[in-house]
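Slide 14.
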Amino acid sequence: MAQLVYKRVLLKLGGEALSKPGGNGIDPDEAAFLANKVKSVKDLGVEVAVVIGGGNLWRGRDGIERGMEQATADHMGMIATVMNALALQDALERAGVYTRVQSAVEMRAIAEPYIRRRAMRHLEKGRVVIFAGGTGNPYFTTDTAGALRAMEIDANVMIKATKVDGVYDSDPKTNPDAVKFEHISYIDALNKRLKALDSTAISLCMENDLPILVLDLWQDGSLEKAMMGEPVGTVIGR
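Slide 15: predicted structure.
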């Protein structure tokens, strides 16, 4: 039987993963789909933490383009991630997976405050931990929050879940000749300004030698294959 290559992973999800294609809001069926994906990896024996975005509910740039102060727009986005985290927690627990939500923006009535050692203890006990509220600070994306939390909990890899099967040199949806990278260095990813992940998140991972795996979560078995070290998606690393 194949051996796991990762013991602990940080899964970064966009908020759009909770809505129907082209839609907004939270769709319970999509939440259940994501929960089953996480459960399938959890059942392999992998410790799973999740960072989720809020783009299905609020996009800060929309407010900023209309004159809203960025700090206000970003704080609204942080609150949106908490709503998404609660929806995913509910779906996971209905699937039989014990889950905890920790928020960088304190909301003690509905989520634990983010405490690194407590989060690691939850993981050790077999619970999935969902980190909400981004980094707790404006001007940082949830990609950066994912990289930060991954390093704080000593994750072996940060997995960026997309609906594209890796990183390409151009948009494969508009360019049929786009070339997929099986592996690309942090520096090349930054220099090529690839849109798989924001530059702050890539730089943070580079400085701490944390590999990033970009894959299509909606491709059957992609997450499970990645846990077994099979070639899936694109690795951004050394």
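Speaker note: The chain has one domain: 8-237.
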